[in-house]
Amino acid sequence: MSRLADYFIVIGYDHDKDRNGSSEGRIIQRFPETDWDSCPFTQSIELFCRPIGWTLSANRQPPEFFVAVLTDIDADRHYLSVLTFSESVAISPTKSDDGDTEEDTALNIHSLMYSPKSIVLVSRLDYFETFKNCLGIIYTAYVDKLDVQLEVLVGNILGCVQVPPPGGPQVRFSIGAGDRQALQPPLSASVPSSRNATALLFQQLGIQNVLTLFCAAMTDHKILFHSQSYSRLTDACQAINILQYPLRYSYVYVPILPAPLYEVLNTPTPFIAGVHSSLAEDTADLVDVIIVDLDGGSVHIPECVNLPTLPEPMVSRAKKTLTMIDITSISTFTWSEMVMNADLLMADYAFPPPSPKKPPSLEQKDKEIRAIFIRFFAELLSGYRSCLTVIRIHPEPFITFHKANFLGHRGMVDVDFLVRVLEGMSFSTFVAERGNPYRACDIFDEVYSNIHDLLTTETADPEKVMEHVKDLAKHLHTNENPNPQPYVQKVPKPTDGAYSRIHQTPFPVLNSDHVHTILHEGIEKHSLKSKMTVRPNQVRIVPMGTPITALVDRQRMVDNNARRLEVLRNCINFLFDNKISDARIIFPAVLRALKSRVARLALTQELGYHIRSNRAVLEHQQFDLVVKLLNCCLQNDSSMDENGVAAAILPLATTFCRKLCTGIIQFAYTCVQEHAVWQNMQFWEAAFYLDVQKQIQQLYAPHYEENNVSDKRDSFPASPTHKNNELNVAKNSSNGQTVSSERRSSYRSREIGVLEIAAEQLRVWPTLGEEKREEMVSNEESTVYSQAIHYANRMVYMRVPLETQKSIKTLSPDWESTSNSNIASSLADSESMDAESGYDEMEISDVGANVIKFVTRFVDKVCNESQVTQEHIKSLHQMIPGVVAMHIETLEAVNRESKRLPPIQKPKLLKPTLLPGEEVVMDGLRVYLLPDGREEGLGGNMGGPTLLPAEGAVFLTNYRILFKGTPCDPLACEQIVIRSFPISTLTKEKLVKLQYTPHIDQLPKEGVQLRSCIFQLMKIAFDEEVSPDDVEAFRKLSTKYRSPTTVFMTFAFAGQAIPQPSTMLKPVEKNASLKNFAKKTIMKTARKAGIAKQKAPKRKYVLPTPPMSRRSMSPRSSAGSDSESDRPVSEALDDLSIIDEGEFGRSWLSDPKVIERLMERPGYQDYVRQGFGEPSDSSVKGKSTEQFRISTVNSNFSVSKSYPALLVVPANFPDDSIRRFARTHRQYRFPVVTWRHPRTKALLLRASGFHGRGLMGMLKSDTTTGTSTGEISASLHQERYFSCIVSATPNSMKSYKPSYSDSLTSLDSLMLTGVQESLLVPETPEVVRRSHPAASSMRNISNPKTSSFSRIGSIREKPRMNSSSATLDSSAMLHQNGGVNERSELLHNSVQGLKRVALYVLGEKAQMKGIKVESFPKCDFIPVEFYEVRQVKASFKKLMRACVPSAPLTPETGFHKLVEESEWLLQVQNIMQLAGATVDLLDVQGSSVIICLEDGWDITTQVVSVAQLLLDPYYRTIEGFKSLVEKEWLSFGHRFTHRSNQTAANQASGFAPLFLQFLDVIHQIHNQFPLSFEYNQFFLRFIGYHYVSNRFRTFMMDNEYERVEAGWLMDDRRSSKINHEQSELDAGFAQRHQSHQGTSIWDYIEKHHRKSTLFLNFQYSTRDQDVVLRPYSNISNLRIWDFFLNEDLAHGPAYEIETTNKEIQISEEERTDSSGQPLMRKIVNGCYDNVILQQPNVFRQMLQEIHKLETDLGHFQQKWKAVWDKLDLPTGKRETMQRNLSFNTQIVKSHGRSIHKRSTLEILVKGKMLGEAAKMFSQPHRFEKHTYTTPAYCDYCGQVLWGLLKTGMHCTDCGYNCHEKCTSNVPKNCTKLKIVPDTGNNSSSVSRSSDTSTLKSEEFPVESGPTFATYTPASANTENSCLHKGYLFKRGALLKGWKQRWFVLDSTKHQLRYYDSEEDTNCKGYIELFDVQSVQIIRNVQGAPKKADENAFFELKTNRRVYNFLAADAKTAQIWIDRIHGFI
To answer: What's the DSSP call for residue 680?
Structure first.
């Protein structure tokens, strides 16, 4: 019996602390006045009575009641029942001490105010309704002045009402006010009473929200409730608490939190709390708290809170049941979408059942909800009792829970919710309370024991679900209301409106003596009264429920594993029968089988059986195989050991051993230590407890007759002898619980479970004598102690490594983070740790100290929890250091002897086949070649043998990294696997983590991955015999040979001395001293800047591009190393080179032999072939009528170092003029002729991009005269040069007539061809088209996903060139409104300038800005789009990852998707389209073309080369291709060394495969025209491989100048000058190689081409091919080059011809039949053999047959070429046959040509329209984030925008909508700004002043572009487009002077233009607002004009420079800033 209430308290308003109507609570009276011994008084109760604070009120408030909860230090809860009412108080307003009056406060103070007063009952019981009644009676007696003394009421409540414990009878009582009350204790104390709290919570929040809160509470998150009702807060918190039954919430629990205690919410521990809604804003800053609004029904989860999902299928079953509650009776309550949604399943009924007369009560719903959650927990924790581990029974039971075992059997290791629940404090309390097997049971125990059967029944009959739920709800209701007879209570209540009486006396002060007298009388009376007979709780054995092993579908498990278990058993039998060869055959299958948990457990059982047969001592080979099996088991298992595999291996590892020598034995544990499980403290604890449980079971088992005949099992179960006993492997080997009958063998009696033993022992414990009890306690303590000693030794065995100098790799976090130990300190830390151990602490190594610490912590924890005596614990601490020291000493001998063992027979390392001159730098290191992401060679789905992984060696030579070995798969081990790549192609090397790989027993944890740019990947794992030093040496040497200092250290020059630079350039040193060098450098720089005067004409200008020129001139500047400004400059390119004539000898100009030698080069021979004549000097006057000459102006490389020595230029253009105008191009690469059309005589020229004029003018301007004569001179020479090109083009003459019937006098027919189909043109919005008719049909090149013109000159964004686009259709000429189609009008207007001109210049948009087109008659400048080098680099990386992935590709990232994302094919397509346009202009139009892109050595080379190959059949021969590459790539200076990273200085720039991309384009053309090429695809792949291999010198160095300096360009037969000292050191070698410096790839190809048909395309036909090729460039017509995909594992890359032939020869010699004859049949595997080499070829076969016959007949063997050329052509009948093309063939050809023309037209139209497009795409949008309430669509990509999911971007000006990710790609065509047509300009020309000599030196900004129309202030159109104008002072860029200018902010052109004055009509310059980054006010400007306003300065920052402006005043400056801000 216990008191109903402990304290009664009266709390009132503290008027002494009143401050403007706010104060604190004060305890007026409390009873009893002294504390109870068992229940001390709780302080600060007054805070909980008024949680929002004690304040006065102007109105009388009705009485309020709520219950608050306090938790004491012992975690016991005290319930505060509070009834608060109002009392009147007279207030006289006074002034406070600090002068503030009541007007300063928010509360209005009246003369009559009301203060709160509370009467409180404090109790440890939760009878809320009874407390409410008692306080209500006291208040009624007070307010209605009943004839009852309040003292009597209080005394009776505290002393006279006694409550029986749970299970007791109903108590009926009265407190003396004429009342009758009844109080009914629940049946069970462990089952909480809920009344209707949970149903109320579901009503407020709904099913999903409550489940979310439930999940949060279970996983220890912080939850905070808001409500305006205190009672609702208490009910909600109580409901969440009750829903967790049978678990109990163990953290902070404050349902009503007072405002002064809000700092509790900042605690790091979880909590459940509630606050009043009026104070909710004070909690808004809580970051990790889940906020629940009870009144609004919402739950807010912060972003940082990650809630796990409730596990399936439990949660789905619970949700379904919650919606089905009481489906037969629809509730009349308005509980839609709540838990009471009983009409959900009947909503669609045509005839729903009638509503019940009596709706179900809320309390009934409450019990049904609780029943569902109890069932949820019973299902979630099914089998938990099978995982309880009994450690001690006497004197107090100690039981733990094996979490890993439970999760493993349930298969829920990855279920985050369950893992968190099991790790929480609530579950620990649950195990401590419910783990006891002999105790009182409650409802959960009953449900748990039957849940499995219930769910089985419900699966068969779903209608049983609600029946079972209601049955359980009835039990819950009975638990709260066990008395079925209702008792009518009588509780007096105050009369209506009693609280609002005006004249109400204050609550009286109670007579303390009277109350205490009644209280003591009641207590004495209760003690004298006979005690009630309380029904005792029935203590019984807790039902076990369904064993956890029965929850697994064992039958299916056996069916799936029967075969693999049979293989496993056979392998182990072979092993122990010493049939090692048989065991090795099936060993790979066993390793694969060990991926299964069942197989791993079966292995431990089988090995245990052989231990019992005394087979623990093994031979060496047996020992190795057993260790491999154990390691494989541990590798496939986790560190948690959820399957018990590691625990089962532990005794095996300490038993299996081998004898090394006399007295030295090595156990298996020394070979299985490197696994994470041994570092996991929780594993050791669980394993220890399981073994202790077994010992406890064996200790008590003999006492029970039922177990007398049971087999005393050892740790190792006997091996099953009959077939079906494989079921035993599913049983946890460490569990001792009762097992189901299916698992019992027929000859074994039933084993009694350890929990049953513990229950029986607890039952008889009270009946035992004291001696017997002590004996049992002593036996159990000794058992635990002995097991602790055993495990301490085991831990030492597993933790001390075999090599004690090296610690075991930690594969998991430190054990302290994974242990659940709470012990802060141990005896291990004391000074007396080894005082008696006999070993000095200094003798123990660091490894030993760590092991001692680890084991000691373990001993402390388990021994203290298991109640081991302190004496035993101390002895353990003293023992551990000695054990460790002895074990370390033992292992030293074992380690020493183990290294003396003969090595395991491993495959012999195969010697690699080397090339001539190739030497092994580092001998083979034994490695495993592992499979990567490619499926080939793995067998499986691709078929064929399993070639990978392979075991062999990796070799490092001075040329290659090479692997050679054999497959690990025994079925394929006879084949040889070779994978290699040149060391120069290594692009990335990194360490990788390795996963389990089949066929490899002990795989290291880390490996090395080597990636090559020839699409090769080598993932290797070094064998254990390879030392880390060897691995590091291998990596360092590979890096050394990958990055040589110079190209002369590469394999191409192997064995040679590094030659000195040739002396033909300069006989003496340029700068003999530092002084001379400094002087020259300073003078050159000064001359450049115009500060110093130029010298006499001894010098000529050879000014290379300044470092920043390219960045400043072109908007294509990037942060990468692709621009010249930030790349490592070659030693041959001197940035400060104004070169003296004397610095280069005149030998080149005067020695005709040198010129003659040069003309023998293939590139120069091509000029002779085209008829450009012989080399000549412009000074030589002759009568030659040839229009072109081969100029020697660059013969000493004084004009451009990156150009060849001989150049084709117009014959009538002098060399001096060339020197002058060359500087108008980047790198001085001026336009030169490279090819001439044989029919149209049109010319193909190449150059670099144009220089902007501003920089050149700045460097060359005369500061005194103000004119830029140097610039003007260069421009005039440039115009003359272009006019010479035009005059040399035949179609510039009126008499020119094209010979093709479909060729063009203009582009009209080309247009008509293109218009028949869709033509892609840029798009502009409709408003723009209406306002600007001249450019009204601009249409973006594709749909918005295509590249826009926001970054012009290159394709910077991801283009989708084949996406759906706006098209021009000739049939759709009418607009929807009946008008003329504006697109067609645009096409007409925009291409009216596309008239036939003599010269087309294809360049960048940035170049076109500085070109004044009218100065170049009959020339047209076409801006084109192209991909930059940085984009090629990025694309190539993605392509490599797609073709050679390092890991298997997932379905989401398939091969084709990755190739598409790389955009490689788009880049190939772009090159083909540009080359195709060039072909059409040259061949169809008859116009000359200049390609001038970037620096002229990358993209330009690609386009020019492909165009020539398409136009000229000569380049499709082997000899012609050689000439093409020599001329365009080598002579014209493609930077091979820089782009291919051939030296260490170029490594940082990144690999750029420009030449490989060119070869891919040729491959695509070859695929479409296979009859047109003499060479085959292997020829292209061979060159693609060797241009980066560094085997040949051909593709080395950056230009011809460097090759001339090297001395090997002129003549291969010419001996180089080698340093004599080096020659003497290695005379013999040097003499052998002195005759040549490296080998040319062309010589190598020619040699092999003479000997074999390896490079010949047998389909080549000179008669059937087209002269001009026009390939399709659609993506659908392009193919992935097989060079990127193919691999030949049989011999490595087939492009090393010598090694390939030798390997094939060796393999064919080994392929013989049984009689020794060579096999005529061969199986070819796609990834192993080279199909092209192995595939039979009839021509090759016949040539070989002829060769053989000639040999047999003794004839002279003819070359194959001679035989091939002698073949007879078809008969003359074929020659005279006229081929009639069919109509379909003509259509196909016509269609192909029309597509090609349309592509050309698109390029021209887009280029011509860029001038207009720049204006039309120069209006940026003003985007703001916008939430769409209705579905909208993105105007850019067309995808849906939905406001509920995400916000979009909305233009505030024109209403444009798009995704946030699309904003960067949206065209800048906002329609708010009007477009005004330029009246004086057309789309093809820009006006300029004709008098170039009058150009002012007025500074042009760096962003100089085309000159715009004159500014006319009176123009209405200009006024409309002018947003702002006025005078500003602008600071000069060079001299920093301030000058006043008239500025106009133009909205049309999106520019800030400036003029000399307001009346001036000529624009002096402009600033593109595109490039403006920021504009802001600046202060403290140096050199400012006098009397200037300090705040009137502002700064405008662009991409290229910073402008400083000065306005009239600060206000004007701010206006300018605001206006400019509107655009940027």
So the answer is: -
pLDDT, residue 1085, reads 54
Question: Distance between CA 1832 and CA 1834 in Å, rounded?
Answer: 7
Nearest to 1474 by CA among 1792, 1058, 1799, 1777: 1799
Q: Which of 899, 361, 865, 958 is nearest to 660 (CA)?
A: 899
Per-residue pLDDT tens digits for 1371-1405 = 333 333 343 344 444 445 454 446 678 899 999 87
Cβ atoms 1730, 1691 nearer than 8 A: yes
Q: Based on the number of CB atoms within 10 Å of its own CB, is 1740 exposed (0-12), middle (13-18) or buried (19 or more)?
A: middle
462 Cβ partners below 8 Å, 6+ apart?
Answer: none
| 3-state secondary structure at position 1328 | helix
How far is residue 1264's CA from residue 1257's CA, in Å, rounded to a whole number? 14
Residues 77-101 have pLDDT tens digits of: 899 999 999 988 877 655 444 444 4
* Buried b or exposed e, range 393-426, using 16+ CB within 10 angstroms: bbeebbbbbbbbbbbbbbebeebebbbbbbebeb
Helix (H, G, I), strand (E, B) or coil at 407: helix
First to last CA, the chain: 82
Distance CA 1969, CA 646 (A): 70
In whole angstroms, what is the distance from residue 880 CA to residue 870 CA? 16
Q: What angle do CA 258, 261, 264 make, to 5 degrees?
A: 120
Contact 1022, 925 (CB under 8 A): yes
For 1760-1809, the pLDDT digits (tens) are 777 777 776 665 444 444 555 555 666 666 777 777 787 888 787 777 76
**DSSP secondary structure string for all residues of 918-936:** --EEEEEEEEEEE--S--T
**Rounded to an integer, what distance in angstroms lies between the CA atom of residue 1153 and that of residue 1161?**
13
User: How many whole angstroms separate alpha carbon 494 and alpha carbon 138?
Assistant: 10
Q: Give the helix, strand, coil percentages of the chain, each rounded to 5.
A: 40, 15, 45
* Tokens matching residue 1092: 């110093």
CA of residue 1197 relative to chain centroid, distance: 50
Please state whether the peptide bond connecting residue 1162 to the residue before it is cis, i.e. omega within 30 degrees of 0: no
Torsion sign over Cα 242, 244, 249, 252 = negative
Task: Quickly state the pLDDT bin for 1266 (edges 50, 70, 90).
Answer: very low
Nearest Cα neighbor of 783 from 683, 884, 880, 688 is 688
Q: Are 1703 and 918 in contact (CB under 8 A)?
A: no
- What are the residues whose beta carbons fall under 8 Å from the beta carbon of 71, sequence distance 6 or more? 77, 78, 252, 253, 254
CB atoms within 10 A of CB 1581: 22
Question: For residue 23, what are the β-bridge partners?
Answer: 54
Place of tokens 């023309």: 1797
**What distance in Å separates the CA atoms of residue 1517 and residue 390, rounded to the nearest whole number?**
87
CA distance 1850 to 1858: 7
Task: Count CB atoms within 10 A of the CB of residue 827.
Answer: 17
Sign of the alpha-carbon dihedral angle for 19, 21, 25, 26 = positive
Cα distances (Å, whole numbers) of residue 1542 to 503, 1040, 1550, 1642:
104, 12, 11, 20
Structure tokens at 298: 């919402």
CA distance 583 to 245: 55
CA distance 651 to 790: 11
In order, the DSSP letters of 1452-1521 are GG-HHHHHHHHTHHHHHHHHHHHHHHHHHHHHTS--EEEEE-TTSSSHHHHHHHHHHHHH-GGGGSHHHH
Contacts of residue 1824, Cβ cutoff 8 Å, sequence gap at least 6? 1849, 1850, 1852
Q: Alpha-carbon Rg of the chain, whole angstroms? A: 47
Q: How far apart, in Å, are the Cα atoms of 866 and each of 34, 1482, 1553?
A: 42, 96, 70
